[in-house]
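We modelled the chain as a single entity of 243 amino acids. Its sequence is:
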Amino acid sequence: MVITCRKRFARVIGFTLIEILVVIAILLILAGLLQPVLVSAKRTALSSSCSSNLRQTGLALSLYCNDSDDVYPCAAEQFIIDMGDRLLPKEWRVVPPSEITHTLSNYIKSHLIFKCPSDRGLDYLDFLAVPASERPTSFASTKSSYWYNEDLYFSAKSITTLNSVSKAVVSFDRSGNWHSNEEPITESMPESTRNLLIQRLRFNVLFADNHVSNKGFGTINHGRGIVLGGKCWFVDATQYPCD
């Protein structure tokens, strides 16, 4: 008997170069579609953490006020005097401010509540367009990522005597760019461009009733004005309306 052996050659099945390129192109398109969603989700998470920090600061301030006849502390951030203090220059010479982080140290568990997770530092105070040089972060430079409204003390306002506690501003982000990612504002910009960018800034704001909300500069301008007896803190309210 003659046995005939035949070799069988199996065909190797694989992807062609064109097929591989098509798959890569599809993956890149999907990645491009998902990237804005992931960036937005990360920004939202950081903003939520920042809001939590401000709420804890609000609770610490409430405890301080309970121990101080409902009077807010005389404190600022690293002895920084802001534009709102132009209305109260004499008081600053009589009662030098202390750091808000030090003033509340007995009422908090960690000084990290004064650090915004989105804090990237700044070179200019965005709504004033004046040099600040807070690098690498504002927290590292001033021990706080937030402004404290020291007008609450110098205006002799307490929690019980404040009008519109749900609108009176207590503390807010040192930069409105951290949560809005707008173009940095500089003093060399045309005033029209600067005003447009200021309207786009977003701040996490702590109000006197201890709620926190993400607001524009107009709300801060109005909210600090409430503490000052109805005056606008920085500019005419019609230029930066509340949101």
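As a brief sanity check on the tokenised model: Residues 18-227 form one domain. The chain has seven helices and eight strands.
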